[in-house]
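Input sequence (394 aa), recorded before submission:
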Amino acid sequence: MTLSTVTDLIRDVLVEMHTRHARTALMAAGVALATGALVASLSISRLAATQIDTDLAATATRTVTVARVTTEQDAGDATFPEDAASIASGLPLVEAAGLRLDLTGKTSVTVRTDDPVLGPDVDGLVVAGITSGYPAAVGAEPATTAWMLDGEHPVVLLGPGAAEALDVPVSADPTGHGVWVNGVRHQVVGFLVGSPVVDGLVALPYPRVEKELSTDADATMTVLTEPGASGPVSAAIRAALRPDVPAVLRTSVVVDASEVRRGVATQLDRLTAGIGALLLALTMLLIANSMVVSVMSRTAEIGLRRAMGASRSGIAALVLLEAAVSGVVGGVSGSAVAAVVVLVAAVANSWTAHMDVGVLALAPVVGLGVATLASVYPALRAAAVQPATAVRSD
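Predicted structure, token format:
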């Protein structure tokens, strides 16, 4: 096909589309609605999947607890290494980690505020040894003196409930206040606030409690992870803490939402694909019907073209090119429609609106393909028109 032939073909198509502008506009509008709906539904499903993923990650538990599997054997073997808190805090996706070893319930504990021998016992409190990272791991505000919990000095940090029961005012400077625990005076060096977990807690340095109990078999580690990271951290932390025998540790059961998120995204993609396929099928029928009607109404014109020397392939190319141009125009319009629909949907649902450029570029390509495919039969029908018959039919 020569350049002049191609030029004549394009000119004929443009003249035909201009002459029958109403039919051309309706065909392009049909393609625009179909491709726009396809691209919009695909983009909205991706936005929805992203939002669901974010919501699931935000609502998933961020806390992982680690403890010993059993305390009935290997009692002399330490559950956690000395630098366990540092190891856990150094893992990726971990924000804070700390150890806790309760003294209450393991041995007789007396807590007094006045006389270490005759002063009245204060009941209802929990005495435990914790490390400096424990308050942050349970969501409490870490005190500036929390580092003292990693030593063995006789100091104590109090939760608000414990401070009230012990008649110790919560203040920025607790100097001069002390608590007698099992006859030993512990200087109050700070307070633990911001979490109900530590409200009634009398927190002693972890090494002191571990030394008094002579074992850490009942110790637990609390790990605060980044949003959505509890599953991976739960799976990796045992080997990180005890690479020699990770089976000696157990972690809290954490439901990893990653499979759920992938399942939701897959279902949305399938739904979008089904809707898109239906819309494209309807569009193909619309274009095919429009082009068949066009061919029938132009039978005399096609016969005249054939009588003047136009080839069958030239007639078919005329029909195919006309449909292709309508498909591309409709596809471009569909991209614009999709962008508006996605923006409105995002604003209505308070989502962050964004669209993939590749998805937007999909509409003209789909429009071209659908329109060209739908016009194959009309093109073949037009090419099969016999000149003499066509002229007589007019």
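Checked by second reader. The longest strand covers residues 94-102.
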